[in-house]
Amino acid sequence: MTLTPLVYWAQRHEEIYLRVELTDAQNIDVHAQDNVLQFRAQGHGAKGQNEYEFSLEFLSPVKPEVSYKSTQRQVNITVRKQQRGWWERLTVQERKPVFLAPDFDRWLDESDAEMEIREKVRFVSLKTGFLFVYNLVQFLGFSWIFVNMTVRLFIFGQDSLYDTFHTISDVMFFCQILAAVEVLNAAFGVVRTGVVPTLIQVVGRNFILFIIFGSLEEMHHRPVVFFVFYLWSAIEIFRYPFYMLGCFNTEWKILTWLRYTVWIPLYPLGVLAEAVAVIQSIPIFYETKLFSIPLPKAIGTSISFSYVLHVYLVLMFLGLFINFRHLYKQRKKRFRTKKRKAN
């Protein structure tokens, strides 16, 4: 005897949603062929623990790709319509199957669905506009830094290495403070990227910029500032325009290749330059006792901030490993997807 689970349905202009009331479903087999959805699974339904199955012949053509998500209480199925439109009923037969009922939790009439689409489009438009403007501002900022430093290098030669902080730092401060937005975007799901790698990069750069360079006047004229700023900006002038095009689901092949390739040598070199800056600052912090951590009077001394920097150096290269692995996985995934599409 075939057991049929309770199935609830709702629709939008482009999709059909089915909710199968089956607890702890296992061995789920769901597919659409010749406009008929077939479902079979084992689980706890209205007739206890058994195998349940059903089939539905849809009113209009649907795409063969079916997605589903199983929870402890139910199986949620999404079927995409072949053509956008509103169906007067779900199945070809006018008489509704006894196991089928409307899903009032998701039910909308046609006008409400249109309003939902408009609200979604409005939200997507605001999000797209925000991301585009943010990436544009960052691109302009880092482009100014890169071009300015390049021109000064050609005009003044080695002398330009010693005044980088005074000529570039204001714009770099602005760009790196603004970069905190990227952590918030990742944390709140505005963009699909990991929070931890983003946080490591933003905090790491701001630590170098504000603590190592900003707080020590002795570091302002060191050539290492030039190399750190130049390597940072060289990476970002490819990353941000790539994200700008991504806001509109557009890409340029050469820009995509540059975005996922240039960082491979530049990112480790940037971290190496940051490490050199930290090493050069250690004796300065030790002598000036800046940011030293005071201890109780009974001990009568303090912990030099230079000791913290020794620990930070270890964490810096740990962060390099985490971020490099994350970025390399992104690169492999990106080019594997492009190769699959090409085939």
Automatic annotation (TrEMBL):
GO terms for molecular function: very-long-chain (3R)-3-hydroxyacyl-CoA dehydratase activity. Pfam families: CS, PTPLA. It is a multi-pass membrane protein. Keywords: Coiled coil, Endoplasmic reticulum, Fatty acid biosynthesis, Fatty acid metabolism, Lipid biosynthesis, Lipid metabolism, Lyase, Membrane, Transmembrane, Transmembrane helix. Its main location: endoplasmic reticulum. The keyword Coiled coil applies. The chain crosses the membrane at residues 130-151, 171-191, 198-216, 222-242, 262-286, 306-328. Its EC number is 4.2.1.134. It is found in: Endoplasmic reticulum membrane. Residues 2-91 form the CS domain. Catalyzes the third of the four reactions of the long-chain fatty acids elongation cycle. This endoplasmic reticulum-bound enzymatic process, allows the addition of two carbons to the chain of long- and very long-chain fatty acids/VLCFAs per cycle. This enzyme catalyzes the dehydration of the 3-hydroxyacyl-CoA intermediate into trans-2,3-enoyl-CoA, within each cycle of fatty acid elongation. Thereby, it participates to the production of VLCFAs of different chain lengths that are involved in multiple biological processes as precursors of membrane lipids and lipid mediators. Belongs to the very long-chain fatty acids dehydratase HACD family. This is Very-long-chain (3R)-3-hydroxyacyl-CoA dehydratase. It comes from Lates calcarifer. The lineage of its organism: Eukaryota, Metazoa, Chordata, Craniata, Vertebrata. The gene is HACD3.
